[in-house]
TrEMBL record:
Lineage: Bacteria, Bacillati, Bacillota, Bacilli, Lactobacillales
Signal peptide: 1-22
Designated name of the protein: Lysozyme
InterPro entries per UniProt: GH, Glyco_hydro_25, Glyco_hydro_25_AS, Glyco_hydro_fam25_subgr, GW_dom, GW_dom_sf
Protein's organism: Vagococcus fluvialis
Keyword Nucleotidyltransferase: no
Keyword annotations from UniProtKB, A to Z: Glycosidase, Hydrolase, Signal
E.C. number(s) listed in UniProt: 3.2.1.17
Length: 989
């Protein structure tokens, strides 16, 4: 018996989807026609002999195809594989495992607008980039990015108008890949608009499907859904169809095989012959997407998004295309916030190839045709005109590329129209490198030693024929001028090294007069808020670099001066917009002396080393005397004036019984005779907004700081002075890490603070203390000492604080006489402390207990906390009781430092871990002791283990002390039962 199957000679529509099982060739009951090829398969023959017949000559005879199919069928049967017709040939695919086979094994996801995906949604490189930077929007006119040949779109971009597509086309786009479908139920609602408008704009249209398939049946189902949608949208079989294979669940070890089923279904059932596979670049490996089996690298479209994509670093050139960006905004797009995925097409798969060569160049030139056309690409038949040069006559432009077509030579350039940056192409006849050539006769001077001399007005092809070395300030006789994109140029004759020469020199290297610059050093005021600042002393052609806006009244330092036919000019440094610059200002926009006015007052000379001048001080002022020997003498002021060096007073004074006059700086004068007296005292700052001056305040003295944040701070006073503005104290302080000396007003300080009544009894603890008549300051009187009063009562009735500490006023008895006075707090204690030596061990039980420098009473400082010491055994060396409890002295180590401190008894425990036991031990030490309790310093010894070695010890309790582990139990001695505590090291089980 034979089974018969009818296939077309082309073998492209053999089956649906053209899959033949190796163990069974599907039977077709249809009658073969003259175009049919018949395959006879004999069931009896294990060799599966196949014979091909045809009426057509090219397929009627037995051919090599017979044996090829025969061999494939035999092989497949042995390997449990299947045959599939793909990319024009039969290929073998190993059968998929039963656990994933069949449509019932995979439920197609339901997709809508809320969960639909776009191309690149799962691209790992996007996630990698996002880990260190938000995606940056890239503008399409960025000159450094790779070429943009086509974009891919989905419903995320919404409807795209023909005008918006044409705007992209002007910027180099010639193709668009539109998302049609996802899974087996989602269709892009914007697809019709996106396809039809792209076609209307003249763009090549391709389509993609976002895949989910995980086995053969789901791959076939998704391909059919995709292909039907493509047909419905009017896309013919020449359309490039894309398998967007990026979802991680697809990578189950069968993604290559499933993609073959997908692509072969599109080709064999629907005639779509060009299928490309898209994914992140890292998936294109033999173990994931094996392009050796899927049609080669030219059937791959790879995605990888560098942080800074560059036209000088083109990746994946072996592929059909590279998707290099996911956030590009096209300049001129009607939606300002819309971004696109952008791609370079290495194979013209998705875009239309250029019909000409483009070469990058760099040059500057001028538009000379006011009616020239600007195209979106070098002009060929059908190229769209995007603009005209109207209004751009004589405008300088930067050329970035050139191309030659059958219509002439074309140049690419950037320009702005209606506020939009654009790129276009202009014909070479509409531009000119050199304009405004004219004859002229003028004598100029060379102003630059490092200038160049050229054979023509400078352009990219100009030759350098000399330099201006050694001819600065020499004559240059001009006979012609011209303009290029690099400035204005003069042609003339000059003499160099005794030889007559000629050439073109840039206008900025020439001046129409000799400029001599003289160094100076002076200070001056700008008095014109709208004056020009030039890059050099002004002569014709010198550029203005700034205006003095906001600089009126500002003091400037002059470094040079120069005189030209346009006046006198000063060089100075200044800062604008955070940049330090040097420029030249006209002398009439400045003034040496301002604010001159009459005065009538008496000042005093305060500086013995001051100078007396004939005018308010400037660089040209003459010194006519000094203030040596005049300190605190009268200076009768009649005038004042301001210069760049400060405020100056003109007045009369007497020297050697002779009246003299002159100008003295305000810093060398005072309105008071200021006498400074050294002191040594401490006080408190009480005003948080007090002023700190550089010296005792009189009129004109500068404030150097404010006491913000210093209220309540103790300061050391080193001097005092009284002026008509009050008493002032000198002190040292630190601000922003800098140590300073200043003067503070006495009313902003206070020697004694926090005075209050008390009613308590202290004991005197220091035999060498002092008794004062008031809380101690520098002026306090000592009225006694505490010698012989240790541990005697001191009945306190008042307390107060000074810069020297806390003080108590009270009553005490000396030689049967009651006395009163102020004693420092550190010399007193509110408990009579008795410290007793001890030797014991105990456990610290509080992990947050305080450790003090001595037995705690009020005022004793905490020196540490027992953090990390809970459960630690400590050796006690002394104990003491105060009104705050019982305290133990002990040694401990903190941060590698050995210390001694006091801990409260309630933060310790002598015996821990007490518990019941029921064990039988043997006494192993004949020299052990028996105690009435677990051993501590207070435990009583009630016996020994002498004579008990190897005797039973029935244990009923155990406990731990600082001396080890102890057991309580019963033993027999001289036929008498006894009990007691024995150390664990003296017994054994």
């Amino acid at each position: 018996m034979k089974k018969r199957i009818s296939i077309y000679a082309s073998l492209t529509v053999l089956l649906s989807p053209s899959i033949v099982m190796a163990e069974e060739v599907i039977t077709s009951s249809s009658t073969s026609s003259s175009q049919d090829t018949l395959i006879d398969v004999s069931e009896e023959s294990r060799d599966m002999e196949v014979t091909i017949f045809s009426d057509k000559d090219e397929i009627s005879k037995e051919s090599s195809e017979d044996s090829k199919v025969e061999k494939i069928v035999e092989t497949k049967k042995e390997k449990e594989a299947e045959l599939i017709f793909f990319n024009g040939e039969w290929i073998e695919i190993e059968l998929e495992p039963e656990e994933i086979a069949g449509i019932e094994k995979y439920e197609q996801p339901e997709i809508d607008e809320s969960n639909q995906n776009a191309l690149g949604s799962f691209n790992s490189m996007i996630q990698l980039r996002a880990s260190f930077s938000e995606p940056r929007v890239i503008e399409s006119n960025n000159q450094s990015i790779p070429r943009i040949d086509f974009v891919d779109v989905s419903s995320h971009q919404g409807n795209i108008s023909v005008a918006d597509y044409q705007n992209m086309k002007k910027q180099g786009i010639t193709g668009v890949v539109v998302k049609l479908t996802e899974s087996t139920n989602y269709i892009n609602p914007n697809a019709a608009n996106q396809i039809n408008n792209a076609k209307a704009a003249g763009l090549k249209v391709s389509a993609y499907h976002f895949s989910h398939f995980m086995n053969k049946d789901s791959a076939i189902a998704e391909a059919r859904f995709f292909a039907k949608a493509a047909k419905d949208f009017g896309l013919d079989s020449s359309t490039v169809m894309v398998n967007d294979a990026e979802k991680s669940t697809m990578n189950n070890g069968r993604i290559t095989e499933n993609s073959i089923y997908f692509a072969s279904t599109l080709e064999n059932e629907f005639g779509f012959k060009r299928v490309v596979h898209y994914s992140m670049a890292s998936w294109f490996t033999p173990t994931i997407l094996d392009m050796a089996r899927l049609g080669g690298d030219l059937s791959s479209w790879k995605a990888e998004f560098p942080y800074s994509p560059s036209k000088n670093n083109l990746l994946h050139q072996e592929s059909s295309a590279w998707q290099w960006g996911s956030s590009t905004h096209f300049v001129g797009d009607s939606q300002k916030n819309r971004i696109f995925d952008t791609n370079i097409d290495y194979s013209n798969t998705f875009s239309t190839p250029l019909k000409y060569d483009i070469y990058p160049i760099t040059k500057k030139t001028f538009i000379v045709n006011d009616l020239g056309a600007i195209y979106n690409e070098p002009y060929i038949s059908g190229t769209i005109r995007q603009d005209t040069t109207e209004g751009m006559l004589n405008q300088m432009i930067d050329i970035t590329a050139q191309s030659e077509t059958g219509y002439g030579l074309w140049y690419q350039f950037s320009y702005v129209k209606a506020g939009i940056n654009k790129v276009g192409w202009l014909k070479s006849t509409d531009i000119q490198d050199i304009i405004e050539e004219k004859e002229m006769h003028q004598l100029l001077y060379v102003n630059l030693e490092n200038g160049a001399v050229y054979d023509t007005p400078y352009t990219e092809t100009t030759k350098k024929i000399g330099t201006t070395a050694n001819i600065k300030n020499k004559e240059f006789k001009v006979s012609k001028s011209a303009k290029t994109g690099y400035g204005v140029w003069y042609f003339g004759n000059y003499e160099q090294d005794n030889a007559k020469k000629s050439g073109w020199i840039k206008s900025t290297d020439l001046v129409n007069e000799l400029v001599v610059i003289t160094p100076i050093s002076d200070k001056i005021f700008i008095i014109n808020g709208n004056a020009a600042i030039y890059e050099k002393p002004y002569v014709e052609g010198v550029k203005r670099q700034d205006v003095t806006t906001g600089m009126d009244g500002q003091v400037i330092d002059l470094t040079a001066k120069s005189e030209t036919t346009f006046g006198e000019w000063y060089e100075f440094s200044y800062v604008k917009a955070g940049l330090k610059k040097t420029g030249w200002i006209k002398s009439t926009d400045t003034m040496n002396t301002i604010d001159e006015k009459k005065e009538n007052k008496m000042l005093y000379i305060s500086n013995e080393n001051g100078a007396v001048y004939d005018t308010p001080y400037t660089a040209s002022t003459q010194k006519i005397g000094t203030t040596n020997g005049f300190k605190n003498k009268e200076f009768k002021v009649s005038k004042s004036a301001l210069t760049g060096y400060g405020l100056w007073y003109f007045g009369t004074y007497t020297q050697d019984k002779e009246k003299k006059s002159g100008w003295i700086n305000t810093t060398d004068l005072t309105d008071n005779i200021v006498v400074t007296t050294p002191i040594s005292d401490k006080t408190f700052i009480m005003n948080n907004n007090g002023a700190i001056y550089e010296k005792p305040y009189v009129e004109g003295v500068k404030r150097q700081d404010v006491t913000t944040g210093m209220s309540g701070q103790v300061i050391d006073l080193t001097a005092k002075s009284t002026t008509s503005f009050g008493a002032w104290y000198e002190f040292s302080y630190v601000k922003s890490g800098v140590k300073k000396v200043g003067w503070i007003k006495s009313t902003d300080t206070q020697s004694i603070i926090e005075e209050k009544n008390e009613n308590q009894v202290f004991s005197i603890v220091n035999e060498k203390g002092a008794v004062y008549d008031s809380p101690y300051t520098a002026s306090t009187q000592k009225i006694g000492t505490t010698a012989g009063f240790r541990n005697k009562e001191f009945k306190v009735s008042k307390s107060a604080k000074t810069g020297y500490g806390l003080w108590y006023y009270g009553e005490y008895t000396q030689n049967n006489t009651k006395k009163v006075g102020w004693i420092k707090s550190v010399d007193l204690d509110n408990n009579l402390n008795v410290i007793m030596p001890t030797s014991d061990k105990t456990f610290i039980m509080n992990n947050n207990g305080a450790i003090y420098e001595k037995p705690y009473v009020e005022g004793v400082k905490r020196q540490d906390v027992t953090i990390g010491m809970s459960g630690q055994v400590i050796d006690l060396t002394a104990k003491s009781r105060t009104s705050f409890g019982e305290w133990y002295e002990f040694s401990y180590v903190k941060s590698g430092v050995k210390k001694i401190g006091w801990i409260k008894s309630t933060d310790t425990q002598s015996i821990i871990e007490e518990k019941n036991e029921n064990s039988l031990f043997t006494i192993i030490n004949e020299n052990g002791a028996v105690y009435d309790s677990p051993y501590t310093a207070d435990t009583k010894k009630i016996g020994t283990t002498s004579g008990f070695k190897n005797k039973e010890f029935k244990v009923s309790e155990s406990a731990k002390t600082g001396y080890g582990l102890w057991y309580y139990g019963e033993y027999t001695q001289n036929n008498t039962k006894k009990v007691g505590w024995i150390k664990s090291s003296d017994i054994a089980k």
